[in-house]
Amino acid sequence: MFEFKRYQFYNLKKFINSKQAPDLIQELVIDSVIMDNFEITDVSSTQYSRKNSIIFINKNFKNDFNLPKSVLLITDNEYIFKDNKFKNKIFVKNLDTSFIKLINFLFIHDDANSYEDNFILKDGSYISNESKIHSTAIIGKNCVIGKGVEIGKNCLIKNNVVIKNAILKDDIIISDNTVIGSSGFGFNLKDLGAKNIIPQIGIVLIDDNVHIGSNCTVDRGKIDFTYIGSNSVIDNMVHIAHNVCIESRACIAAQTGISGSTNIGKNLICGGQVGFAGHINIGDNVIVAAKSGVTKNISSNSTIAGFPAIDIKEWKRKIILEKKNGYKWNSKNTPPSISVSVNW
């Protein structure tokens, strides 16, 4: 387990007393049971439990789990709420709104108007006073290095790069115009808009000897971290969303998009313009052909292609069968035009 100090990146605004927590979201509370009195100063996830924290479990979560005594459970799952092993818990109508209200009460993050950072101008770039950059690292022109960021030995950060909410280990290259540690895409379709964005208070962790190309974005984790494993190479214009975990020696070509909470094993080889759906698991030694759409879990040692992506041998057979059945693409069988009227 990799641990980081959240306060290094996000200042604690106020702590929450466990017994007072229901009052902060009173309009959302259906029921509550608080047996223990403790201060809440952090957030847990289903992967990592932290003492003196709050954890949010949604109605779709089915795994069995245990929590330390000093963790307050908030859920919209009635079955979990009624489980007697949880002594400190709140049953709510809307989990996303509860998360937004309580996290914004606890932390100052960079999607809030109250967020502040103090910079010095050094060699044409703005460097936070609260960052740590090794003396052997090189920072290009017009970069912004934010609060809490750590950059290790022999790193090369090229021009116009923004790095915030991130820890970079050694021998890393970040190419021009890339953003590391940007806000993850956290939202609720029923309640959209900038005021309702779900706070992202995790970080990005990039391991040793990683190369990231130009115009890439790597979003920080919602609660824990987004991870890029050692010896990985990432081409230009790649998007890696929040909570993604990519193990070592990944090779990812341009214009690939990896949706949130996707876990990718070791030695991925990924062609250009591939799309990965969120919340899926990709095994070790997987090869993905260019322009594939990966929509489900993929076992180790697979080679896949197409949309939805399937075993490449099966995909090739499908293409051959289509040709045998007389399918030919030409200008005469282009799709019919579609007219759309918009009322402003």
Describe this structure in words.
There is one protein chain. The N and C termini lie far apart (51 Å). A hairpin with a 4-residue loop joins strand 36 (303-305) and strand 37. Strands 10-11-14-17-20-23-26-29-32-35 form a 10-stranded mixed beta sheet, with no helix packed on it. The protein has a 10-stranded mixed beta sheet with strand order 13-16-19-22-25-28-31-34-36-37. The chain has 4 helices and 37 strands. The protein has 3 domains: 6-108, MurE/MurF, N-terminal domain (Udp-n-acetylmuramoylalanyl-d-glutamate--2,6- Diaminopimelate Ligase, Chain: A, domain 1), CATH 3.40.1390.10; 119-243, Hexapeptide repeat proteins (UDP N-Acetylglucosamine Acyltransferase, domain 1, 3 Solenoid); 259-331, UDP N-Acetylglucosamine Acyltransferase, domain 1. The chain is 10% helix and 29% strand. The longest helix has 13 residues, at 312-324.
Write a compact overview of the structure shown.
With 344 residues, this protein is mainly beta.
